[in-house]
Amino acid sequence: MPFMKSFFKAFENQKKQKADTKILEPPETPTFPVSFEIDTNRVYVKSTLHYTEDLVEKKVTTGHNKTVYFLYLEPLSDTKDMHEYFYSKLRKIRSDENLHRTLSDMDSARLVHLSDAISEILSGKSLVLIENTDYCYLLSTTSVIHRDVGEPDNEQVIRGSHSGFVENLSVNLQLVRNLISHPSLVVKYTTLGEVSKTKSAVIYMDGRADPIVVEEIHRRLKKIKVDKLMNSGIIEEYMEDNIYSLFPQFITTERADRTALNLIDGRVIILTDGDPTALVLPVTFFSFFQSTDDYNSRWVAGNFYRLIRVISFLLAVTLPGIYIAIITYHYEIIPFGMTFVIKDAVEHIPYPPLVEALFMELTLELIREAGIRLPTPIGQTIGIVGGLVIGDAVVNAGFISSIMIIVVALTAISSFVVPVHEMSMAMRLLRYPIMIMASLLGFVGIVFCLTVYLIHLCKLTSIGKPFFYPFAPFDWKGLMNRFVRLPHTVEVKNEQKEGKNNHSSSS
């Protein structure tokens, strides 16, 4: 298929060009050593921070007339203990040796360059400048503000843990550590954003995660050169293998237990400070149809609902197109008993089925978007009342057939069954090309679109790993392990058997 090869090649070239334009080396910041003149140090710090008025400067004189300055940003620092205990203790010190010993005994770090201290002040630490001293101290006074740990609103489960991530990276790492108390759990920090200086963590289990994948993730993170990074969505876009694909290549979750399960399965997690969302990578297409409830319920029920989710995906993508194709070209396949019912419903509609479907789909998107933007009680009311009122009005006015209302309702319900929001959004976009091709070519157009989607899925990768695994490449054992949820007792036996085989082969 030369057309498809040139089509995907053009997108890959555009992606490479965009990546090349984004990789820019930041300018180096000149170092500024700590001066013996304490006023010079103070002026440097205040001028570097542009004389911001929330920079607090506290002067303390020790018992032997040594001047000490404390500089910190008031909104970011918790200095209550410093005021109550430390200042009074400094005033009683009568020698340089005791002064430096007191500062060293605290949770502090010693620096010889003031330029290195600026970023620490911006993270909430307090700078200590001492008269006639060519080094300074940094005290850990960061004020931690975060909401309480609770269950994520968009990932609620019936049974199991109800702990979800918050906007504080340290708290999120604590939740993960509480679930996985194993020495092989590795956390690697990185700072992203030239201006925002956002702290991110790459988490994986050494010995389970693929070292090549871990190395590739670090390489891609180093290439991210942006001024601000406020959420994980920017990381996701920069690290995707194909940014033009409608299919999400990472899973996002706010659940600590789901994150721990993915770590044990050998995947890598990226957490970002200020964002409760964890990025799970690499993933496969069928990972989006798995839910935490699958492992908290009986294995038969878990597999049944996984199958329901796959069927819902197919319905959400193809059902409007199938309706358009049948009404426009293939009405002969309608059962005889339903012929007159459907005929009475559609014969007085002034628009072709494609216009009907587009009108209702776009109306549903408007209602959904309005429900999200409005406050929760009002948003729920808009969704229910808007759907009932508009649906009843357009049918009574003769603009839309009642059959189309049923089709759109089933399509909307099917799109909500998939547990990952990003895949649900992709499903809503994937149906529009199918609707257009169904109106032009009937079932042939639907098959053509599905074939293009299937080829794209087979070519797609997630951090270099096949996205459509275990079907492309086909792996029967992988199909049983990933798509089918086996009983926990069988899974444990398989893991023990694999461990013995690996041990015997290594010995």
UniProtKB/TrEMBL annotation:
InterPro entries: Spore_Ger, UPF0353/GerABKA_families
Cellular component aspect of the GO annotation: plasma membrane
The keyword Ligase appears for this protein: no
Cell compartment(s), UniProt: Cell membrane; Membrane
Topology within the bilayer: Multi-pass membrane protein
Predominant subcellular localization, coarse grouping: membrane
BP GO annotations: spore germination
Transmembrane segments: 307-331, 399-420, 432-455
Keyword tags: Membrane, Transmembrane, Transmembrane helix
Claim: Metal-binding is one of the keywords in the record: no
Entries under PANTHER family matching the protein: LEUCINE ZIPPER PROTEIN 4, SPORE GERMINATION PROTEIN
Homology family: Belongs to the GerABKA family.
Protein name from the UniProt record: Spore germination protein
The species this protein was found in: Alteribacter keqinensis
Lineage of source species: Bacteria, Bacillati, Bacillota, Bacilli, Bacillales
